[in-house]
C-alpha cells in the first residue's frame, strides 16, 4: 500500500519525537506499506523517510519547486535532506519556480493524490499558512482518503 505523510516540521520535544517515531513505526508495520510518499521537509517528513529507509522500504519524494533546498538550513538541515534524497526510489519535481505557500500546498495535494491513505503527524490545529498540515488533512478528507492521525501533543492515534 502506498502511504503518504503530512506533518509538522517541529514535532515537539525529544520525548515527543521518540513517541511519534515508535507509533509511526508500528503503523507502518500494521498498514503493510509498500511505498511511502512525502516532500522530505524537516521534521515529520524526514522522520518518515528515515524509518522507511531503515526498513528497506522505498519512498517517493515530491519536490515542491525549484530552489526547495534553499528552505533548509545549510549546516544542520540541508545535508540530511540531500542524504535522504539520494536514497529515494523516485523524485517528482513540481513545476513551481520558487518555494512558496502555493507550491507547498500543491506538493502536499500531490502526495495525497498519489497515496492510497495518509499518515498525519499533526497537533489538530489550523494551518499556520497555506499548505500546512491541516490544509493537507482537509484535502485528504475531501478525497475520501483514510487518515491515521498521530497527535504528538496529546499522544493519541486515531483514524479520521
Task: Report on this structure.
It is a single chain. The chain starts with a strand and ends with a strand. The protein is α/β, with parallel strands linked by helices. The chain has helices spanning 14-30, 44-54, 78-86, 101-114, 133-142, and strands spanning 2-7, 35-38, 59-65, 90-96, 117-121, 146-151, 156-159. Helix 1 (14-30) packs across helix 2 and helix 4 packs across helix 5. A seven-stranded mixed β-sheet has the order 4-3-2-1-5-6-7, sandwiched between helices. The model has no long low-confidence stretch (mean pLDDT 96). It is built from five helices and seven strands. The protein has one domain (2-159): Rossmann fold, CATH 3.40.50.450. Helix content is 38%, strand content 24%.
Features:
single chain; 160 residues; Rossmann fold; 7-stranded mixed β-sheet; 5 helices; 7 strands
In short:
The chain is α/β, with parallel strands linked by helices and 160 residues long. Helix content is 38%, strand content 24%. The chain has 5 helices and 7 strands.
Give the SSE layout.
Layout: E1 2-7, H1 14-30, E2 35-38, H2 44-54, E3 59-65, H3 78-86, E4 90-96, H4 101-114, E5 117-121, H5 133-142, E6 146-151, E7 156-159
Helix pairs in contact: 1-2, 4-5
Provide a count of the helices: 5
Which structural category do the helix and sheet elements fall into? alpha/beta
Q: CATH architecture, please?
A: 3-Layer(aba) Sandwich
| Termini gap | 18 Å
Order of helices and strands: EHEHEHEHEHEE
CATH topology: Rossmann fold
User: Portion of residues in helices?
Assistant: 25-40%
Biggest β-sheet, characterized?
7 strands, mixed
What's the total count of β strands? 7
How large a portion of the residues is in β-strands, by DSSP E? 15-25%
What number of domains?
1
The level-1 CATH class: Alpha Beta
Amino acid at each position: 500500500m502506498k502511504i503518504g505523510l503530512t506533518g509538522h516540521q517541529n514535532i515537539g520535544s525529544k520525548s515527543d519525537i521518540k513517541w511519534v517515531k515508535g507509533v509511526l513505526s508500528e503503523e507502518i508495520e500494521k498498514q503493510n506499506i509498500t511505498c511511502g510518499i512525502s516532500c522530505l521537509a524537516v521534521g515529520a517528513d524526514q522522520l518518515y523517510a528515515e524509518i522507511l529507509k531503515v526498513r528497506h522500504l522505498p519512498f517517493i519524494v515530491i519536490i515542491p519547486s525549484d530552489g526547495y533546498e534553499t528552505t533548509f538550513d545549510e549546516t544542520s538541515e540541508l545535508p540530511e535532506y540531500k542524504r535522504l534524497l539520494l536514497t529515494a526510489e523516485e523524485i517528482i519535481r513540481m513545476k513551481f519556480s520558487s518555494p512558496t505557500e502555493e507550491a507547498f500546498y500543491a506538493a502536499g495535494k500531490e502526495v495525497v493524490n498519489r497515496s492510497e491513505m495518509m499518515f498525519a503527524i499533526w497537533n489538530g490545529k489550523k494551518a499556520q499558512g497555506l499548505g500546512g498540515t491541516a490544509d493537507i488533512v482537509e484535502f485528504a478528507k475531501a478525497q475520501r482518503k483514510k487518515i491515521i492521525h498521530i497527535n504528538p501533543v496529546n499522544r493519541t492515534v486515531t483514524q479520521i
